[in-house]
Design brief:
The protein is built from seven helices and four strands; from the N terminus they run αααααβααβββ. A hairpin with a 4-residue loop joins β3 and β4. It is elongated and about 70 Å long. The chain has 142 residues and is an alpha/beta fold. It folds into two domains: 50 residues, no CATH class; 83 residues, Hect, E3 ligase catalytic fold. The protein starts with a helix and ends with a strand. The protein has a four-stranded mixed sheet, covered by helices on one side. Its EC number is 2.3.2.26. It is an enzyme of class 2 (transferase). Pfam families: HECT (PF00632). It catalyses: S-ubiquitinyl-[E2 ubiquitin-conjugating enzyme]-L-cysteine + [acceptor protein]-L-lysine = [E2 ubiquitin-conjugating enzyme]-L-cysteine + N(6)-ubiquitinyl-[acceptor protein]-L-lysine.
Length: 142
């Protein structure tokens, strides 16, 4: 029985996926030459490809640019007060709403910026919060 289990496990974890994995590696190396990636440790490569998963939310607040708003406007102060009270998971959901991803690129948080803009609606109470994920702009009604 032990031999059967060992052979079965080897087949499932090695032999059965060998060809698809080799095809993946070949395609990956064609698009991303191996010499470029060899300078990274595995954890660094993961961060470059997937982005950062830990955040300094106050640094994020510091890097925001405002359009039709000032940092001391009541709407902005209310926004950040509520934002900082959110649990970590909700903050990541906000990041996904704003950028399309719940991670910040491998460049790092100090280089990540977004903009908060006033949609300048006639009746702000009838306007929903929206985001332009390509440009990282949050349209926050007054």
């Amino acid at each position: 029985r032990k031999e059967f289990v060992d052979l079965y496990v080897n087949y499932m974890l090695n032999d059965a996926i060998r060809k698809p994995f080799e095809d993946f590696v070949q395609g990956f190396i064609r698009g991303c030459p191996a010499t470029t990636w060899k300078m990274f440790l595995p954890v660094e490569l993961q961060t470059v490809l997937q982005g950062h998963t830990k955040f300094d939310w106050h640094l994020l607040e510091k890097n925001v640019k405002y359009s039709q708003y000032k940092m001391l406007d009541q709407t902005i102060r209310n926004f950040w007060t509520v934002f900082h009270k959110l649990p970590e998971e909700k903050k990541k959901m906000f990041l996904a709403f704003l950028t399309g991803s719940d991670r910040i690129s491998g460049y790092g948080e100090e280089y990540f910026t977004f903009q908060i803009a006033d949609p300048e609606a006639a009746n702000p109470d009838e306007v929903c919060l929206t985001a332009n994920t390509c440009s990282h702009i949050l349209f926050l009604p007054r």
